[in-house]
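Entry 14. Ran structure prediction on the chain below.
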Amino acid sequence: MTRFAAILFLATGLFIIGSLGDSFGASQISISTSKPVYTYGESLSFSIKVANVTGDNAILQIVDQANQSSGPIPTVITKQVSNFTAPFPFYRTTYEPGTYYLEIQYDGANAVTSFQIVDNGTIAIPPEFKIVARSWVNNQTTTKLFGEHIADLVNSGVITIDNFQEQNMTVIPSWFKNDASWWSSSSVSDTDFGHAIEYLIKSGIMKV
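Output, structure tokens:
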């Protein structure tokens, strides 16, 4: 979770997309997510409402149920009500299913809200795997290396194979390059591509 959160908020930043928020009550700041439950492939959206715009950054962090934190994430506050959305969705490789807490500090005040990530069977594959697939299609990456990346997806739970054990050989049919090419160009969805891999491995046609 830590590595992804750092990339998600620090390297790429947050997009301000509008105005939304709930009432302060007795607090000087409030924070709320756009919905209580997210699934893989969806992006976190949240609203921050402050009583006073000071010109300082808010400090945001994501904390999981094991109390592991993303670390402090500076967040620019330029108006009393701001809506933010993360530019990348949740992936199984970096976020386990469970409850997460979005904590914020600003102008001496603190606020926290919670949300859940659930695995509903939707497959969401991080975009860096498309780079590897495209390289394999163009014969710039070996079949063995491409197979290792597929094994990583299985081991991380992105692709589900019961009782999966890595093989001491890599076998990927050459015709599967068509599927990889379509997927890497976004002509095939992550879910369809993932299910194709699941079928090939379970059938013994693909070995990774």
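Residues 143-155 form the longest helix (13 residues). Will compare against last week's run tomorrow.
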